[in-house]
Amino acid sequence: MAETTQRRVRVARQPYDLRRDRVEAAESRVRALRQFAGRWVAMKDEDVVIAAASPGEVVGWLSEHGVRADSMFRVPEDELAASGLAPW
Known about the structure:
- By secondary structure, the protein is an alpha+beta fold.
- It has 3 helices and 3 strands, in the order αββαβα.
- It has a 3-stranded antiparallel sheet, with helices on one face.
- The mean pLDDT is 82.
């Protein structure tokens, strides 16, 4: 009886696959944040903790509830605002 050996072959992911994964993850975040357009949000990990009209409201809520966020930012209202260009 012949002896067989098994070898595990690990296939390295190509840079294209990694870029595609990052793009898909970013697009997913954009879709999730779209509902908060024009509002200030606080995030912890990948989750929106609170969304409010002003940064003061966000900070106040976080403080009142003893919650620490990883980041806080205003979700742009549209693509123009996201680009950083100011309208005339």
